[in-house]
Amino acid sequence: MALAASNLLRNRIVAITGASQGIGRGIAVGCAQAGARVLVHHLGSDGARKDAQELVREIEQIRRDLSGLAGEERGGPAAIEVAGDIADPSTADEIVRAAVSTYGRIDGLVSNAGICPFFSFLDIPHDVWRKTRGVNLDGAFYVVQAVAKQMKEQQPQGGAIVAVSSISALVGGGEQAHYTPTKAGVKSLMESCAISLSPYKIRCNSVLPGTIETPINAEDLSNPEKRAYMEKRIPLGRLGRPEDMAGPTVFLLSEMALYVTGASVLVDGGAFVNLQ
Question: Which segments does the entry list as coiled coil (predicted)?
Answer without folding.
Answer: 45-72
